[in-house]
Design a protein that fits this description.
A hairpin with a 3-residue loop joins strand 1 and strand 2. About 70% of the residues lie in helices and about 5% in strands. The N and C termini lie far apart (about 45 Å). By secondary structure, it is an all-alpha fold. It contains nine helices and two strands. It has one domain. The chain is globular. A two-stranded antiparallel ribbon has the order 1-2.
């Protein structure tokens, strides 16, 4: 089976799982993203382990669950912002636990553990905010409203697909050869063009928010999605790895699929919170 066909089939299964969970109900959506977050976090800890450091995986996983659960409850207006204070003792526990390690790299273990939370758990938790917008001007009052979240992923998937295809067909000028030799400027602008077009389609599918907001979300998704991809590529290159895992044939691991989300989600969340919600 060619790599393109394999990539297409595995990608279609992944998209179906994510979109199906988002459309089904809020708890299915949160559960799927929680699983993907934990899987991505464990892949990250495996990658940085190539540096000869063993992160505090158990404390990292527990803290990531608390961060995600807190954001889920906060997004539903069930708790106030003080819920996030429970994270502070957990972060302190990570550093304290590493003090008792005898290895010379124990402080780096704490940094890698917390770094995984900032890099993965926080962006995944922001997806809860996109699923529970407060848009009184459009008639929504903070309940589960998956249009923004699903539209965001549609734009990410569109860029990923057409940047890849355009890069294969037309790519000649390398975008960032030192980190990702296959990415090209032609692929970047091809993805941007098709994603802008898809933003117009998404605006017809989901008229909330308005078209100009979807176009901005599309631009943020493309630009910071590319940076997220490059950042993960840099991480793997530094650790001498090609893929974060082998979960999806043709795509690598779960972290390889969500690398575009890790910088794009915070930027989109910030934008819609300031200018839309």
């Amino acid at each position: 089976m060619s790599n393109l066909i394999q990539r297409t089939l595995s990608g279609a299964c992944f998209i179906t799982a994510v979109a199906g969970a988002v459309l089904w109900c809020s708890y299915a959506c949160a559960s799927v993203f929680l699983v993907f977050m934990l899987w991505s976090l464990l892949e990250f800890y495996h990658i940085v382990g190539k540096d000869g450091v063993k992160p505090a995986k158990i404390l990292g996983v527990v803290t990531s669950i608390v961060i995600f659960a807190s954001s889920f409850l906060y997004a539903q207006n069930l708790v106030n912002v003080r819920i996030f204070l429970v994270i502070i003792p957990l972060l302190a526990a990570i550093f304290i636990a590493c003090i008792y390690r005898k290895e010379a790299w124990s402080f780096r273990a704490a940094v890698y553990t917390v770094g995984g939370l900032v890099y993965i758990a926080v962006p995944f938790s922001m997806l809860n905010g996109l699923a529970y917008p407060s848009l009184p001007v459009y008639g929504t009052s903070g309940g589960y409203f998956p249009d923004v979240l699903l539209g965001f992923f549609i734009l990410l998937w569109t860029n990923d697909t057409f940047a890849y295809l355009t890069g294969i067909l037309l790519g000649k000028h390398r975008l960032f050869e030192r980190i990702s030799p296959k990415k090209s400027w032609e692929g970047f602008f091809g993805g941007l063009l098709f994603t802008a077009g898809m933003a117009m389609v998404v605006a017809r599918m989901f008229p909330v928010p308005a078209l100009h907001h979807w176009l901005v979300i599309a631009a943020l998704s493309v630009v910071f999605g590319v940076y997220g991809d490059l950042l993960e590529s840099l991480l793997k290159r530094n650790m001498g790895m090609k893929d974060s895992g082998h979960f999806l044939p043709g795509h690598g691991g779960i972290l390889d699929r969500f690398d575009v989300v890790l910088l794009a989600a915070p930027m989109v969340y910030a934008y819609v919170t300031w200018f839309v919600f």
